């Protein structure tokens, strides 16, 4: 497993998609900080406020990272490397879980890059322009941003688990990308178009959709012209259980599919 992960990291560093997304997130954090500062000024209530602001703009991560996860899991089937790796002694479960673990490390890196880049640019801009930086809400802003950071990591892990499951079952990059597209935007549709449905089942489905929870903890979920946030222990327990269950079910289904089906180049 260690040699497999080292080899994957080596090739990942040379991967054009990984490099492109890394640059994209760097530019996004820079551009967003400059744009918001140019509109509302660079004054900050606390040094941690930029991280809280970045949390409300992390939604676009869910449009990019699942697509990368799809390519990442299917490339072994597309190029035939998965058969050689398994023939060398690595188990099928080890191959898939190694891919998933490395995918989580990449996601963590991109989250740190996005949050850290936005924070550095915002604080630097405030220093350069001489804008005031308060300290009264530092603990509150830091706590809130760290909570959203952790939830984003968990939900991106859930998205990746589903996408990698689809990749293992479909095995063709083009078809898996289509399935990933429908999964990602299907979640948006569940959140946006089933809010006011009269069907109790569809309403329940919408309330428990991944994107519904993401928009709630990001402060972007609006119902009847009112922003709905996670509040209370029950809301947070549900927000954690939903992706946790999806991760367990998806990884189990992917491992069963990988174990039972033959692998062809």
Structure in words:
By secondary structure, the chain is mainly α. It has one domain (1-260). The chain contains eleven helices and two strands; from the N terminus they run ααααααααααββα. The chain has helices at residues 2-13, 16-40, 49-55, 61-79, 81-87, 92-129, 138-170, 173-193, 200-207, 210-217, 233-260; strands at 222-223, 226-227. A two-stranded antiparallel sheet has the order 1-2. Helix 1 packs across helix 6 (92-129), helix 2 runs parallel beside helix 6 and helix 7 packs across helix 8.
Question: Key features?
Answer:
265 residues; mainly alpha; two-stranded antiparallel sheet; 11 helices; transmembrane; ABC transporter permease; transmembrane helix; membrane
Short characterization:
Keywords: Membrane, Transmembrane, Transmembrane helix. The protein has 11 helices and 2 strands, in the order H-H-H-H-H-H-H-H-H-H-E-E-H.
Number of helices: 11
Largest sheet: 2 strands, antiparallel
Number of strands: 2
Strand/helix succession: HHHHHHHHHHEEH
Q: What is the average of the pLDDT values?
A: 89
CA-CA gap between termini:
22 Å
Q: Strand portion, in percent?
A: under 5%
Helix content: over 70%
Q: Work out the radius of gyration.
A: 20 Å
Strand order of the largest sheet: 1-2
Give the class from helix and strand content and strand pairing: mainly alpha
Query: How many distinct folded domains?
Result: 1
Outline: globular
Give the low-pLDDT segments: none
Protein name: ABC transporter permease
Keywords: Membrane, Transmembrane, Transmembrane helix
Transmembrane segments: 53-73, 100-128, 148-169, 176-194, 236-258
Organism: Paenibacillus riograndensis
């Amino acid at each position: 497993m260690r040699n497999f992960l080292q080899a994957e990291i080596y090739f990942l560093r040379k991967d054009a998609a990984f490099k492109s997304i890394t640059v994209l997130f760097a530019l996004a954090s820079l551009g967003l900080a400059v744009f918001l500062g140019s509109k509302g000024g660079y004054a900050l209530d606390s040094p941690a406020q930029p991280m809280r602001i970045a949390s409300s703009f992390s939604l676009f991560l869910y449009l990019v990272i699942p697509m990368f996860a799809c390519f990442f899991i299917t490339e072994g089937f597309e190029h035939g490397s998965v058969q050689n790796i398994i023939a060398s002694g690595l188990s099928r479960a080890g191959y898939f879980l190694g891919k998933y673990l490395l995918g989580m490390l990449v996601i963590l890196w991109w989250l740190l890059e996005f949050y850290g880049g936005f924070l550095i640019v915002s604080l630097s801009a405030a220093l350069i322009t001489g804008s005031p930086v308060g300290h009264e809400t530092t603990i509150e802003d830091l706590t809130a941003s760290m909570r959203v950071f952790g939830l984003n990591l968990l939900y991106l892990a859930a998205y990746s688990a589903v996408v990698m499951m689809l990749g293992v079952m479909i095995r063709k990059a083009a078809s898996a990308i289509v399935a990933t597209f429908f999964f990602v935007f299907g979640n948006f549709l569940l959140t946006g178009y089933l809010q006011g449905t009269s069907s109790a089942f569809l309403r329940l489905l919408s309330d428990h959709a991944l994107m519904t929870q993401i928009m709630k903890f990001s402060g972007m979920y609006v119902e009847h012209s009112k922003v709905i946030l996670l509040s209370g222990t029950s809301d947070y327990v549900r927000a954690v259980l939903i992706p946790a269950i999806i991760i367990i079910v998806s990884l189990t289904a992917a491992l069963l599919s990988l174990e039972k089906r033959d692998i062809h180049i």
